[in-house]
């Protein structure tokens, strides 16, 4: 499912803000619940990840417009899995990857985050968890990531939520690394230690 709860109409535009595709603008069809991570928040997040993004295997759960995964590929991630329940969002992401000549590095999956994780056979270095606000998806997603050993040792997990949302208890092995708020959004980065 795409991020957020605020409905959009018409078309939106996503700008990649750093790396090899810096400045590229991609149009996407706005849809109910689609809330791309803002430029300001992405800039801060990728400053936090600057030393770790190159060569990383990334997972963009609740991908929506694909803002986080596309930014990670632009900045040197080896590959990224994009997960979303919207077939239209996945089709659009596949088109964007073709236009950017990144189709071999981006893998799109039309599935729910929880269903995808239960079937996945690999581990990721950086995971973006930005579920729709107010739908209680944060806790089960983080718990499943932890239980299924989907994270590489020393992996980083980015979590975005509504600023007023009650946060779940995160796994004990997830060390809070950075945290910030911007408007109605709260976002944080964890470093995952082997249990």
From TrEMBL:
Q: Give the reaction(s) catalysed.
A: guanosine(966) in 16S rRNA + S-adenosyl-L-methionine = N(2)-methylguanosine(966) in 16S rRNA + S-adenosyl-L-homocysteine + H(+)
Give the EC number.
2.1.1.171
UniProt cross-references to InterPro entries, sorted A to Z:
RNA_MeTrfase_RsmD (IPR004398), SAM-dependent_MTases_sf (IPR029063)
Recorded GO molecular functions are:
16S rRNA (guanine(966)-N(2))-methyltransferase activity
Record key words, sorted: Methyltransferase, rRNA processing, S-adenosyl-L-methionine, Transferase
Q: Which NCBIfam families match?
A: 16S rRNA (guanine(966)-N(2))-methyltransferase RsmD (TIGR00095)
State the function annotated in the UniProt record: Specifically methylates the guanine in position 966 of 16S rRNA in the assembled 30S particle.
Q: Which family does it belong to?
A: Belongs to the methyltransferase superfamily. RsmD family.
Question: Which protein, by its recorded name, is this?
Answer: Ribosomal RNA small subunit methyltransferase D
Q: Which organism is it from?
A: Candidatus Seongchinamella marina
Quote the gene name from the UniProt entry. Answer: rsmD
């Amino acid at each position: 499912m795409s991020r957020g709860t605020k409905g959009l109409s018409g078309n939106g535009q996503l700008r990649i803000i750093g790396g090899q595709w810096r400045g590229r603008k991609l149009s996407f069809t706005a849809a109910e619940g689609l809330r791309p991570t803002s430029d300001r928040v992405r800039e801060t997040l990728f400053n936090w990840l600057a030393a770790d993004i190159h060569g990383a295997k990334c997972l963009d759960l609740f991908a929506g417009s694909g803002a986080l995964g596309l930014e990670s590929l632009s900045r040197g991630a080896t590959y990224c899995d994009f997960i979303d329940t919207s077939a239209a969002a996945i089709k659009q992401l596949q088109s964007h990857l073709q236009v950017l000549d990144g189709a071999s590095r981006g893998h799109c999956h039309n599935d729910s985050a929880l269903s995808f994780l239960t079937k996945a056979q690999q581990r990721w270095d950086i995971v973006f968890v930005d579920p729709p606000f107010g739908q209680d998806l944060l806790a089960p997603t983080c718990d499943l990531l932890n239980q299924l050993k989907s994270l590489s040792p020393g992996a980083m997990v980015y979590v975005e939520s509504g600023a007023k949302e009650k946060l779940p208890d995160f796994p004990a092995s997830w060390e809070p690394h950075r945290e910030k708020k911007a408007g109605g959004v709260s976002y944080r980065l964890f470093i995952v230690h082997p249990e």
